[in-house]
Specification:
The chain has about 350 residues and is mostly helical. The protein is about 80% helix and about 0% strand. The longest helix has about 70 residues. It is globular. It starts with a helix and ends with a helix.
Length: about 350
């Protein structure tokens, strides 16, 4: 239990709190560098093997592996302690969120906003939104749970279970929804993305975690995470600079694209968080579990989404841009969800008093 509490109660760093500001700066820097150094960006784009961009792949590993080091798959044994909350979140993450995003993307991007968007990119935008919603968040959930005083054992066990499910469910769900949206599914690339950006990083992270814990215990793991944390964030921001370097011309031509892509993302987050919170109350889940359940149900593993979008559709694709918009809105929208669940605690717990 102590290990779970330590893992699930990190402070939110200054870098994380102002992530949206850094993303905005990356937009400016990427567009400027892309215009000033087109040859350098073209060379980076051409560094591919089997449609996998090698510089981006390295950056994604540097982003994802430090996050996966926090996951203790031994926590799966405690899933039964909070089975109602776990059930609610699994339902939202795997039966509601990807499908609701596909519906919202089709409605807003494919129909309502279609006259305002480049016609050739609309299927790619929808694909990016689907990728964004197809995997639940792995790392930042610990921060959100900490900010709302969530139950640490529930948070850790739920994230570990979601990561395990993601290994097997991410590709089939993405393939199904892309097919339903009439988007060609390059199955070989999709499966390669799962291996490269889920299976191998999970294996490496768990081997490193086990080795560090065996040699130096929890303090050694905390020191390693402290060192790797900034590397993960810098890798994320570097990836964003590269993406916006390639997307710069398109963004300057139609800056409204970013705002329009944010609309279904925002609706999806609040819808899924609200549904998870309401279902938790209906099933009598304690507030300390319901609060992180709403947050886990709403947040996205945007690092994986960015990597998969680049592999499947290219570094200069609309899909990649759509996933990056998810990064842009992640922190402010999730902080607003934290505020909502904290302020509504009295309303939530009145049902327990009446029961």
């Amino acid at each position: 239990m102590a290990d779970a509490e330590l893992a699930a109660r990190p402070a939110m760093s200054l870098f994380e709190r102002y992530l949206s500001v850094w993303v905005l700066l990356c937009i400016v820097a990427g567009i400027g560098l892309g215009a000033a150094l087109p040859g350098a960006f073209a060379a980076i784009a051409s560094a591919e093997i089997s449609r996998v961009n090698l510089p981006i792949a390295v950056l994604v590993w540097l982003m994802i592996i430090p996050m996966l080091l926090k996951i203790d798959f031994g926590a799966l044994g405690s899933v039964r302690q909070h089975w109602k909350g776990v059930g609610v979140t699994l339902f939202i993450n795997w039966a509601v969120k990807p499908f609701s995003m596909a519906a919202l993307g089709t409605f807003f991007i494919g129909w309502l906003f279609a006259p305002l968007l480049p016609p050739g990119e609309i299927p790619s935008y929808i694909a990016g939104l689907i990728l964004l919603a197809a995997a639940p968040c792995t790392a930042m959930v610990f921060v959100w749970s900490n900010l709302c005083d969530g139950e640490p054992n529930y948070t850790l066990s739920q994230v570990a279970l979601n990561d395990l499910i993601m290994v097997f469910a991410f590709a089939p769900i993405v393939g199904l929804l892309l097919g339903v949206a009439s988007i060609a599914v390059p199955w070989d690339t999709l499966l390669l993305s799962v291996v490269l950006y889920i299976m191998i990083p999970v294996a490496i992270a768990q081997l490193v975690r086990a080795g560090v814990l065996a040699s130096g215990g929890k303090p050694a793991l905390d020191r390693l995470l402290h060192v790797l944390g900034p590397i993960s964030l810098v890798s994320l921001l570097t990836t964003l600079v590269l993406l916006f370097g390639f997307q710069g011309e398109q963004i300057l031509a139609q800056p409204l694209v970013i705002v329009l892509l944010a609309v279904p993302i925002l609706i999806q987050v609040y819808f899924n968080a609200g549904l998870a919170y309401w279902l938790s109350r209906r099933f009598g889940v304690a507030w300390c579990v319901a609060a992180p359940a709403a947050l886990i149900g709403a947040s996205n593993f945007f690092e994986l989404a960015v990597a998969a979008a680049i592999s499947l559709f290219g570094i200069d694709s609309g899909a990649a841009l759509a996933t990056v918009v998810g990064v842009l809105v992640e922190v402010p929208v999730m902080l607003s969800v934290v505020a909502i669940v904290k302020r509504s605690r009295g309303w939530y717990e009145r049902q327990e008093e009446l029961a």
